[in-house]
Automatic annotation (TrEMBL), chain A:
<dbReference type="Pfam" id="PF07556">
    <property type="entry name" value="DUF1538"/>
</dbReference>
<keyword id="KW-1133">Transmembrane helix</keyword>
<keyword id="KW-0472">Membrane</keyword>
<dbReference type="InterPro" id="IPR011435">
    <property type="entry name" value="UmpAB"/>
</dbReference>
<feature type="transmembrane region" description="Helical">
    <location>
        <begin position="37"/>
        <end position="58"/>
    </location>
</feature>
<feature type="transmembrane region" description="Helical">
    <location>
        <begin position="12"/>
        <end position="31"/>
    </location>
</feature>
<feature type="transmembrane region" description="Helical">
    <location>
        <begin position="210"/>
        <end position="232"/>
    </location>
</feature>
<keyword id="KW-0812">Transmembrane</keyword>
<feature type="transmembrane region" description="Helical">
    <location>
        <begin position="175"/>
        <end position="198"/>
    </location>
</feature>
UniProtKB/TrEMBL annotation, chain B:
<protein>
    <submittedName>
        <fullName>Uncharacterized protein DUF1538</fullName>
    </submittedName>
</protein>
<keyword id="KW-0472">Membrane</keyword>
<feature type="transmembrane region" description="Helical">
    <location>
        <begin position="15"/>
        <end position="36"/>
    </location>
</feature>
<feature type="transmembrane region" description="Helical">
    <location>
        <begin position="126"/>
        <end position="146"/>
    </location>
</feature>
<dbReference type="Pfam" id="PF07556">
    <property type="entry name" value="DUF1538"/>
</dbReference>
<feature type="transmembrane region" description="Helical">
    <location>
        <begin position="89"/>
        <end position="114"/>
    </location>
</feature>
<dbReference type="InterPro" id="IPR011435">
    <property type="entry name" value="UmpAB"/>
</dbReference>
<feature type="transmembrane region" description="Helical">
    <location>
        <begin position="215"/>
        <end position="236"/>
    </location>
</feature>
<keyword id="KW-1133">Transmembrane helix</keyword>
Length: 233, 243
């Protein structure tokens, strides 16, 4: 229960200041209707409580399992299975990410149903999966992060040239939302185990996620751009 | 104008969606449990309680966002467009970005990490200030983009160009931290409220399209921490050299 209380305070401090600004904007620009205000406040309470419960539950139920998998994988299975597991876990954890779902539903709401919510989430997840696998590969082969980031971003901007403009903004937004409240801790938990096995080249510290999150946010950009090339011309 | 509270409507659908969202992860974890990790019954029991909490929390979170923050963002966005002083959107964007960032727990973890890595040379308070102002500026840029209507790549290409060039010269420890931190400022509030507001403004404003000018805001917010940490990392390197 101690952790849950801690999560609640963290979430409260993250959401409350914005909520106050939102309430002020609502009063100034929209209306001073009491019922509308009440709905906003109750909704904010649900958001805060829900997020705290979600993160607390994930920490209790999912992260220890992730850590265990991270430490057992290198002991028990071969190189290629580690990469494969990175792909699968990156994929499924993105499907479970709240921020991704909210973005997908906003894209759906904005009209012009050119991609369904499901297809969009699947491609974002695919992008994360592939790049988590690449990040594991990078760590195992000890390639410098810059040598992965620069070509990846160059590829992203190259593909951008062939994509209709409506897809570009969505694609880059997708890169930002994958690093949400569940993906980052879960992937980090996994990576701790992998890092322990690869102890050599200490150009980086043990505390960082060895550029995993950086890599994980390129994948979805590329995936959604490719979706744009395939489904829209 | 509504005169009745909408609180629970659609919650069952949310619950079904959440179960669908978590199902693939749980299935994969079950496979790992059988073939790789073999947790004890006690550990499995703890994991199951956590999962039930996560399902309930996720559902509540989505419902709260759908009944409060998203409609509020849409209404406020549309109302500002109608307002004679619609340029107010720019300072409002700045304030929202700065407030959301300085309150985000992930940002605090980042500032702590950078202070440690730089042996105290980059103080937490300086990085926090840089990040809050940085995100504020980028949200303001996103709002200017909606009002004037210029393409996203006008900002993205030069910003990523600078970031990648600086990445070669900055301390390598800071490169990982910087690119990893892209996501820290794009917390739940950015996507739920600020983006909803931007999309609504772009949808209401004559000659603007939500897909062209509304989206792209999250991408801009993600740039601020990357640039801030890299530039501070480079300053730190130059400061360290003479010794």
């Amino acid at each position: 229960m101690g952790t849950l209380w801690h999560e609640f305070k963290e979430t409260l401090s993250a959401v409350l200041p914005v909520t106050i600004v939102v309430i002020l904007l609502q009063l100034i620009f929209v209306s001073t209707n009491v019922i509308e205000l009440l709905q906003l406040i109750i909704g904010a309470v649900m958001t805060i409580g829900g997020l705290a419960l979600f993160i607390g539950g994930a920490k209790l139920g999912l992260l220890p399992v992730g850590e265990k998998i991270g430490s057992r994988l290198p002991e028990k299975v071969s190189f290629s299975w580690i990469i494969m597991s990175g792909f699968l876990l990156g994929f499924v954890v993105t499907v479970a990410e709240p921020d991704v779902r909210i973005l997908a539903s906003q894209i759906d709401d904005a009209g012009e149903q050119f991609v369904s919510e499901g297809l969009l989430i699947a491609s974002i997840a695919l992008g994360v999966g592939v790049f988590v696998a690449l990040a594991f590969l990078r760590k195992l082969l000890q390639i410098k992060l810059v040598y992965m980031l620069v070509p990846s971003y160059m590829l992203v901007f190259f593909v951008t040239l062939f994509v209709p403009e409506e897809f570009i903004a969505i694609a880059f937004d997708a890169g930002g939302v994958t690093t949400g409240p569940i993906t980052v801790p879960f992937i980090l938990a996994l990576s701790i185990g992998i890092s322990a096995v690869v102890k050599g080249g200490n150009e980086e510290t043990s505390s960082d996620s060895f550029g995993l999150v950086a890599m994980a946010s390129i994948g979805p950009i590329l995936a959604v751009l490719i979706l744009g090339v395939l489904f829209y011309d | 104008m509504i005169d009745e509270l909408i609180l629970m409507e659609g919650m069952l659908e949310e619950l079904i969606e959440v179960i669908g969202a978590l199902a693939p992860l749980l299935a994969l974890l079950a496979v790992f449990q059988v073939f790789l990790i073999q947790l004890s019954w006690h550990e499995v029991y703890k994991a199951l309680i956590g999962i039930v909490m996560a399902v309930v929390g996720f559902t509540l979170f989505l419902q709260g966002v759908y009944i409060a923050f998203m409609p509020a963002g849409q209404e406020i966005g549309a109302a500002i467009v109608e307002h004679p002083e619609s340029w107010l959107l720019v300072p409002i964007g700045f304030v929202l970005g700065a407030v959301a960032t300085s309150a985000e727990p992930a940002v605090r973890v980042l500032t702590y990490e950078v202070e440690e890595e730089s042996n105290g040379a980059i103080r937490k308070s300086i990085l926090l200030l840089t990040l809050a102002l940085g995100v504020g500026v980028f949200v303001a840029v996103a709002m200017i983009r909606i009002l004037i209507g210029f393409p996203l790549w006008w900002v993205l290409v030069p910003a990523y160009g600078i970031a990648l060039i600086v990445a070669f010269f900055a301390d390598q420890r800071f490169v990982s931290i910087a690119f990893d931190s892209g996501g820290v400022a794009t917390g739940p509030m950015t996507v739920t409220f600020i983006l909803a507001m931007a999309i609504s403004v772009a949808g209401t404003l004559e000659g603007r399209d939500p897909f062209m000018e509304g989206f792209g805001l999250v991408a801009l917010v993600a740039l601020a921490p990357i640039l801030s940490v890299l530039i501070l990392g480079m300053i730190f390197r130059f400061k360290e050299k003479p010794e």
